[in-house]
Amino acid sequence: MAASSSTHEASGLAHVATVSFLASRAAASIGFWVALAGGVALARVGERHGARAGYGASLAATLQTVALIGPARFSVPLTQALSAPLLGSLQRRATPVTWQVVACGAIRLAHVLFTAAFAVFVLTGGLDVYTKSYESLTGWLGFVPRGKTAALVISGAWLLIWSIFASVVQVLVYRRGLAAWPAASADGEMRDPETAAPVAGRFDPRAVALAAAVAFALLLVDHSWPLLGGIAAWLALAAVVGGGDRSVVPTGIVLAALLGAGVLAFTLLGGLGADESLRRAARATLFVLVATWLRAAAGSEGLREVSRRGLGRLSRVPPAKEAAVVMDELGSGRQLGPAVRSVFAALGSVPARPVPVMDAVLGWVVVESRRFRPAGRPARMYLRAGFRDALLLAGLLAAGAMVFAPL
């Protein structure tokens, strides 16, 4: 009974993290601030039940957001997903604030450095391009140092300053939320049990996930016009033939256009030339479009089923087992709508000042996590790959053969 109770508590907190992380990915410009509520919830799991349970809840919440809206903007709440369970565990051990900030800062700095390296070396073409773009954007100021060293030092200093600031804020907000956590429980209305929804499209979601992974890998390896054209044609055909949930497509197209335009402008400023800049912009666009197709073709239930089966195969690897249990209890996300409405209700009469808003959100985290009612264990979705799934993968591999085709 105790184990079941702790799992239900972790599921309620993972539910809150899902709401927060979804909102942070939707409003990426303020994503750090929006994701703090989810981070507090995951820190609470780490404080109450240890780091392993905390990371299980974090993994489940992260996979749930991917199932609901796809992998686009995946990295926005990722730092808090990675650091919150650890900070809760450190708080449980009464670790000094300084060491909590150091631990959080190390995770955040590693994350932003990896993200920056991906943007510089994969999307825009390397340090020379980055340096030229930096000089083009800052040259008019007159007093900013020029050259590769200056670009790296100034950019690195900015990332370090942001990492320190964000980590201090994160730790202080988490500690405030955990210290004020009430002991009394709050009852909520029982939700209706959930039933498994059918797969959104015509392809087996496992084949869709595998195809998307292969497409990402091919785009990482090469960005020649034959490969880009082959993947674009394959993607268009797969989208038409495979059907699926079209609700995520408009947002995906907008995000793809914005990223592609940003990469094009940056690389042109960096002196890459029109051809290379267009190819890199096309690759960036395809990254987002493939991610959008993954969510549309597999649907939220399909991606949830793929995640559940993957966690099941990794059950001996911590915290996969804990994540699988929590993800089962999260259900299909029907409780997200009432949760969002409850946020606005909690903020309705709060003065528009930072501290009152923060305390209202922290209070919502507590109440909503206790209102959550675990879904019943879902029935295993029947999946069977067929001939069309083989054609899907064969078409992609044919497009990928362009990488090795002679010029």
Commentary on this structure:
The chain is an all-alpha fold. The chain has one domain (2-376, 387-403). It is built from 15 helices and no strands. The chain is globular.
Shape descriptor reads globular
Radius of gyration: 23 Å
Distance between the termini: 66 Å
Strand content: under 5%
Q: Uncertain runs with pLDDT below 50, 5 residues or more?
A: none
* Topology order in helix (H) and strand (E) letters: HHHHHHHHHHHHHHH
Mean pLDDT across the residues is 88
Number of strands: 0
Structural class: mainly alpha
Fraction in helix: over 70%
Tally of helical runs: 15
Question: Main sheet, how many strands, which sense, barrel?
Answer: none
Estimate nothing, just give the exact number of structural domains.
1
Quickly list its features:
single chain, 407 residues, mainly alpha
Secondary-structure blueprint:
Elements: H1 2-26, H2 31-49, H3 51-69, H4 78-92, H5 97-124, H6 127-138, H7 148-179, H8 205-221, H9 225-242, H10 249-269, H11 274-313, H12 320-330, H13 336-347, H14 354-371, H15 387-400
Helix pairs in contact: 1-2, 1-3, 1-12, 1-14, 2-3, 2-4, 2-7, 2-14, 3-4, 3-11, 3-12, 4-5, 4-7, 5-7, 6-10, 8-11, 8-15, 9-11, 9-15, 10-11, 11-12, 13-14
